[in-house]
């Protein structure tokens, strides 16, 4: 199972995102979506689940506070991360007990392994800010194990 991980689009879907996600079976968006057009464009590639970030409207019915599901035998939790203040792998690992934790907010791409658990920030895919290269990630789940690869756009 290949899952596209994206965050902080802030209303922009770069063409490179669609290329990076060509082979994914679903997409998880970790917030700061920036409007419905983003979700509609991503849904042309694969089914999308999205959570709201600090710049999204909490009442938007297409966005949830967080997402938790078992995917191919692995528990996956997605939130924007702002709910823990300044998100770090340690703070997220302490708060949530899923096998894979996906977050955004910092715009800094990260893959962190803590024993059997994995923390992934796909970075920011939207407008370039903070002199950080836009990015997404691919989560691959096979045989009950999860791995993540960052992809610069």
User: Which structural class do you get from the secondary structure elements?
Assistant: alpha/beta
Let me know the CATH homologous superfamily. Metallo-dependent phosphatases
* Ends apart, CA distance between termini: 22 Å
Q: What radius of gyration results from the CA coordinates?
A: 14 Å
Reported CATH architecture: 4-Layer Sandwich
Mean pLDDT: 95
The CATH C-level class name:
Alpha Beta
Number of distinct beta strands:
10
Task: Sketch the major β-sheet.
Answer: 5 strands, mixed
CATH topology: Purple Acid Phosphatase, chain A, domain 2
Strand proportion: 25-35%
Task: Note the run of SSEs as H and E.
Answer: EHEHEEEHEEEEE
Count of separate DSSP helical elements: 3
Task: Bin the helical content.
Answer: 10-25%
How do the strands of the widest beta sheet line up side by side? Answer: 3-2-1-9-10
Count of individual domains: 1
> pLDDT below 50 for ≥5 consecutive residues: which ranges?
none
What general form does the structure show?
globular
């Amino acid at each position: 199972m290949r899952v596209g991980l994206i965050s902080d689009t802030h209303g922009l879907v770069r063409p490179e995102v669609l290329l990076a996600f060509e082979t994914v079976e679903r997409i998880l968006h970790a917030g700061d979506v920036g409007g419905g057009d983003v979700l509609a464009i991503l849904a042309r590639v694969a089914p999308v689940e999205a959570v709201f970030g600090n710049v999204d409207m909490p009442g938007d019915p297409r966005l949830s506070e967080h997402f938790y599901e078992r995917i191919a035998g692995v528990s996956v939790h997605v939130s924007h991360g702002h709910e823990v203040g300044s998100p770090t792998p340690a703070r997220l690992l302490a708060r949530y007990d899923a096998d894979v934790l996906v977050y955004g907010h910092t715009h800094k791409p990260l893959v962190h392994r803590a024993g059997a658990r994995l923390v992934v920030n796909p970075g920011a895919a939207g407008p370039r800010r903070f002199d950080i290269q836009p990015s997404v990630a691919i989560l691959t789940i096979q045989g009950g194990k999860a791995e993540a690869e960052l992809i610069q756009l």
